[in-house]
């Protein structure tokens, strides 16, 4: 039996899945990501866990045919080299694919960013199944998109396609983002950035239930925002409306650019459900003046999206 591994590297943990040749999940493992390790030591650790899991499942090492890796980084494709990795800075510039090919001689290795992997997972296993064109839009600490065109992942010239959360709407104005610019959509609408706006409003003297819920402004997160909004807190509703405005503009701009009629939303903020996304839909529809149907769907692959998408890197669609 041929065996394949899908590896999802996150900022705090690494998830690993082993699959049979029919893509049946054989077993999973999860372990902490150590940001202090050098690139080579980091991936040696992953290979050690992979070997241990195969032994535990009684799978001979020689059955391993391919390893796909998703990273929380900008990845130069097809070289599989990290360009920039804010969560694991020791990997900046590291040639992941080359390293793994040396550690795993004779094994196919593919490396891409985690957003692209999740788009593949949803396209082939989740909410986007059967759709020729799909945009996967994770809404979480940050914003990005994975673009499926004609059933294939679109990566762009260097592998960076989909960093749409950093498209600019108010250049030079607003809270500076980690991307190095001011005025990108992410800086107004992501879960990680909206709390900075909330803290600014609190500092300006606006009252909010969120301080009581969190204990202090510094501890406010998206969960407190949701609870306060459902209780009718004016600042929380103001924050939700700001997020919805910019998310709706973001999705509208993507729709106008690519004319894709299937948006699959993933990421941590989809738990807000209709509270947030009904507002996003209203903004989107307010700018759209055509009648063609456009679907807003929620991701279905859950916590396995990362390992499934990394696996699918090994199975490009037939031309």
Automatic annotation (TrEMBL):
The keyword Transmembrane helix applies. It comes from the Bacteria. InterPro entries: ATPase_NBD, ROK. Keywords: Membrane, Transmembrane, Transmembrane helix. The keyword Membrane applies. The chain crosses the membrane at residues 243-272. Belongs to the ROK (NagC/XylR) family. This is ROK family protein.
